[in-house]
Give the backbone structure.
Amino acid sequence: MKILVTGGSGLIGFKLIKYLLEHGYEVYFTYLTHKISVENAITNKLDVSEKVSTMKLLQQIKPEIVIHTAAITNVDLCETNHELADKINIESTRNIVNACEEVKSKLVYISTSAVFDGKKEVYTEEDKPNPTYYYAKTKFEGENIVEKSGLQFLILRTDQPYCWLEKWQKEKTSVSRVLKKLESGEETNEVIDWYNNPTFVDNFTEVSLELIKRNKFGIYHVVGSDFINRYDLALKVAEVFGKNKKLIKPITSNELQLPAKRVNANLSNKKAQKDSGTKLIRIDEGLMKMLQQKMNSSMF
């Protein structure tokens, strides 16, 4: 099967490429600014906000499945630059959808827990989204474009992805940021009133591929099995990696004075686990897997 991954140099995109190759798929991927090469995968430079170029590439490749990961995930940047957020998170998604309709590709769209307002204790796939800040609004608009298309689709909502970063990846995860500070002996201020379902990216790719292989369609919450605040997450990072917990200081989100006001949305992952036949792991297990990867790898 031929699969195209947009945003292939990103955190989730790159892991998907590697995982798909390991499972025998014919993999193509796109990048915009960070050119990378992956053995046995075909690289394509593409600005997915350019309609004509996007259409041409999909007509050339004719993938059975497109996994659309390319997006601006910096929520504060989206809050202060609506034009850029619209271009990348909405118009690019519309271009991908139109091209998929043209070549009759199935579409997997990576979305976010942020589409909810955080007013409910736990959200299932049946709950109606109500995004409150701009990044979330653009991702929900992307979901709407996908749902209203004539495509067979998967919408995979995830939250706080974490894993080891590649050298070219500039974005930080909560785990990598905390670990870097603790390793250098720096204090780190961690928010006590931001809660997430941290998701180990390796586990995300495993569940996502199972949903694809089992020909599942619709919306799934592919998130980790803990709902935890950033401060407690940092303490777990310190514990697993043997770092000094005293360097971790609790603060409230109001002290940061950031443009985007986050919400605490706890997503149920029961449907994704049931339909994929794969466990979505808790933060302790994900961190232990990262530690094991570090011990087994020469790259660290």
User: Anything to note?
Assistant: The CA atoms of residues 197 and 226 lie 5 Å apart. The chain is about 40% helix and 20% strand. The mean pLDDT is 96.
